[in-house]
Amino acid sequence: MTTAVPLHNEKAEIQSKGYVYIIGAGPGDPELLTLKGERVLCEADVILYDDLVSSELVERFHGLKIYTGKRKDNHHFEQDDINEELLRHARQGKIVARLKGGDPFVFGRGGEEIEVLRKHGIGYEIVPGITAAYGASAYSEIPLTMRKISSSVAFCTGHPINKIKVPDADTLVYYMVASSVHDVLDAVVNKGWNDDTKVAIVQNATRYNQKIFTGTLGDLRKREKAVYSPALLIIGANINQFIEDNWYSKKKKVLITGDDEVRFNREKYIVVPLRTHRVDGADQKMVEQCFCGIEEYSVLFFPNRLSVTYFFKYLHEYGKDVRYLSKNKLYTLGNAAASELQNYGVIPDLCLEAVSPSEHIDIFRNKGVEHETMLLPCSTIIDEYLVKALIALKNKVTPLCLYSLANHEQDETIDLDFIDEIYFSSPTCVQNFKHCYQSIPEKITVTTANNTTETAYRRVFRSAEG
Description:
Layout: H1 10-17, E1 19-24, H2 35-43, E2 46-49, H3 55-58, E3 64-67, E4 70-71, E5 74-75, H4 79-91, E6 95-100, H5 110-119, E7 123-127, H6 132-140, E8 153-157, E9 171-175, H7 181-190, E10 198-203, E11 211-216, H8 217-222, E12 231-235, E13 252-257, E14 269-273, E15 277-278, H9 284-292, E16 299-302, H10 305-317, E17 329-333, H11 335-342, E18 350-352, H12 360-366, E19 373-379, H13 384-392, E20 396-405, E21 421-424, H14 427-436, E22 445-448, H15 451-465
Parallel strand pairs: 1-6, 1-7, 2-3, 2-6, 8-9, 13-14, 13-21, 16-17, 16-19, 17-18, 19-20, 21-22
Antiparallel strand pairs: 4-5, 9-12, 10-11, 10-12, 15-20
Helix pairs in contact: 10-11, 14-15
């Protein structure tokens, strides 16, 4: 008699026990995330992410997001609290992504976290990331090794100050030097390095606001130059003359408001999306009321990508999925919203082109968008141009506010000193920007998607200047 052996279902086992992925997000540029890191984050139920992981990266994924930021003397979560969160969610059978800046095993405390997971019998994997030294090297054109000049490199930290190491290597790279850069420079000189040795400090490596200070050991020891976190110190003869005019510095930095990032060529531009939304702006009572009576709406009209993201977030929290929308037609305005909808396995019944607001009525009429009862998921700032155009065609429109317009708690305000151009994709984007920034520096070029947006920009900003 033969006994049947059940097939091993790895995914089911992971789901029943919970599983943790410790992932390196890279040094700052969201496009430096690895393919495996992206796949795992797409599958994750929970994402615990650090301070140096950008919101632009995190918002691409749909898991529950928990900010665990830690900076010197300002810890949102202590390490013990992070360990407890990892265990708590894993014990619930969830796929947990622990997303860390750079690489988890290069000054990232990944080793401490796997000790905790091992101790409690939780399965895990490590997904490496591009460490800050590699990012700073590439985006500043400072080779860490170079034939006939540097054949060895050492990675160190600037802490603790009384234990700063100076290894025997041709190139020295020090992480976390914002508050200890002069202590490190002194330690290097005391170890016998010449005052004429070249030095570079790279702040915010690979980000839009990357800044580089250069000089010699002697120069930088004498200068009281403020260094802000995150900062990396590179010391060695391989620091070359191309730093001030490297490939990254030649790109124009454009701040995008809205979903029109695709119109800017990444070979020529550094695209900086403006993130001004958060989930806690939802009218919970209205959300529940609309979901209970979802069949009353003949059309769900999604005006942008975020309206799709947050609608489905609340739909899932309500315990429903796309099958609950079987009686509704789903319309989108623009390709970004349509693409986001497809991430949830839904192809829109109608994808309208994102044209000038003045042309909305004609486009809607030509596509037969008339006499419908519509639910309009949106932010707390409602697009009046869109609503008026829909009502003009005898549509009954109910706005559903799902997110407010304010900075994330962990976000840093965009430093406009580094921005060359601001692009407004709609009048609503102009209003959103005004909530965060009272004025626009004169050196910045402002471009708009259409005449209506240009008029809104002039009314909101130019009239204030006058």
